[in-house]
Amino acid sequence: MKNRNLPSGTRDEFGVRAEMKENITAKLFDLFKQRGFSKLTTPILEYADVFKPLNLTNYRPYQLLDEQGEALVLRPDLTLPVARVMSTTGVELPAKWYYSGDVFRVKKQLSGSYNQLTQAGIELVGYASLKGEWECLKIALEGVRAAGIADWTLELSDARFVNDVLAALPIPEPTKNALKQALFAKDLSRYKQLCKPLADTAFEPFLNEWPWLFGDFDKVIQVVDTLPEITALVPVITNLKQTSGFIRTQTPDQAVFLDLSIPSPQSYYTGMAFQGYTQNSSDYLFSGGRYDELLTSFQQVKEPAVGLAFDTDALVDRMPEPASTEQSLIYFEADQWQLAETTLNKTPNSTFCLADSLEEAKRIAISTNRKLIDLTEGR
Fold first, then answer.
1. Strand partners, 65
2. What is the pLDDT of residue 333?
3. How far apart are CA 283 and CA 262, in angstroms?
4. Residues 6+ apart with CB under 8 A from 97
5. CB count, 10 Å around CB of 287?
6. I want to staple 256 with a disulfide (CB 3.0 to 4.6 A). Which of 6, 91, 207, 217 is the partner?
């Protein structure tokens, strides 16, 4: 009886959780609109080629064929469809969009994760300034605050850092590639072996710490500052330091971490990246970053872009449940409809009871733990 079961990795939502999700989505939309973003909606079905730039290491998309035999997918991402829209509609730049919708990702079996996720996010296209990242981060801070989540960590990284450091090392290119693989895999024995030719160089103090270059922002920067000057890295480090300072001006007590020993979250990222998470959870509250080459997947012209996506489900999972309030049921006869409307309008947290009899209305009130307002009393 598969018609009564859900496909693996999906779920129905109702009651308190569905209301909480609707509530936080509405708050995010209000925030996006308040800051000047316009709504953009894309279809759930897209051609598979739209998502070629996507890193599919931990999941794969749901696939099907159209009537011409072209490969279609249920969208596993919402950023790339925005890039497709920008490249095919001739929208004047710069542009600020917001969106919301479900994405579908077939996760590994027994991973414990859902294959259907709801996201809400923003895209700024045509803005090359660091102010684009700061706008995303400001909205991230406000969005998490709107969800009522207090204890969480902001993590910064940069897609350029690893490659810029490797480019400066005086070792052959194949060794650099092997070193990168060992760093990302945290294969420490292999990593140390590959670093031996760099012993007694100006890079040694940094290389000794690189595999563990994650944690409190200021402590990580102290290690970065042991590097000899690398021209390409100067703007990268400057932007990270300025961004950490910006966060502290907005939310002085916010925990800010820095991770400079990981691969880019997506292959199309070209600069700073950021994520928010809580302890004891692998799901990010939000993630985003700069991807100035994103539109080149669809057109020849390169345009700067930066974006942010909230995982709406992750927000709801960590939101405090709303305090329960006394609910009331209004029972009435059909000829009392106008009186019932008046009672409904002046009684908070009330709803009509449409039962056929007072006995049934009482049973419903008891089973749902609600107060019964009987307008037929005394008739």
1. 71
2. 95
3. 17
4. 37, 38, 39, 40, 82, 122, 123, 125
5. 21
6. 217
Instruction: Compute the average pLDDT of residues 139-153.
Output: 95
What are the tokens at 170?
């005086």
> What are 84-120's pLDDT values in tens digits?
888 887 788 899 999 999 999 887 665 557 888 999 9
With 0-12 / 13-18 / 19 or more C-beta atoms within 10 angstroms meaning exposed / middle / buried, residue 25 is: middle
CA distance 233 to 375: 74
Q: Is 144 helix (H, G, I), strand (E, B) or coil?
A: helix
Q: Could you identify the residue written with the tokens 């059909």?
A: 334
The residue to which tokens 């990593």 are assigned = 191
pLDDT of residue 144: 97
Cα distances from 54 to residues 30, 79, 96, 264, 288, in angstroms, run 29, 10, 22, 12, 14
Match 């990222």 to its residue by tokens: 269
DSSP state of 126: S
Strand, coil or helix: 91 = coil
Give the tokens for residue 54. Answer: 């996507």
* Local structure of 233: helix, strand or coil: helix
Strands (E), 150-285: 153-158, 214-216, 255-259, 272-277
**Residue holding tokens 């049934």?**
360
3-class secondary structure, 274: strand
At 53-87, the pLDDT tens digits run: 877 776 788 899 989 999 999 999 998 898 888 88
The pLDDT of residue 143 is above 90: yes
Pair 277, 214: CB distance under 8 Å:
no
The C-alpha atoms of residue 150 and residue 144 are separated, in whole angstroms, by: 8
Distance CA 138, CA 361 (A): 49
Q: How far apart are CA 264 and CA 157, in angstroms?
A: 8
Instruction: In whole angstroms, give the CA distance from residue 145 to residue 250.
Output: 12
**Rounded Cα distance, 226 and 79, in Å:** 36
What is the reported pLDDT for 2?
A: 62
Q: How far is CA 26 from CA 19, 29, 284, 331, in A?
A: 11, 5, 20, 32
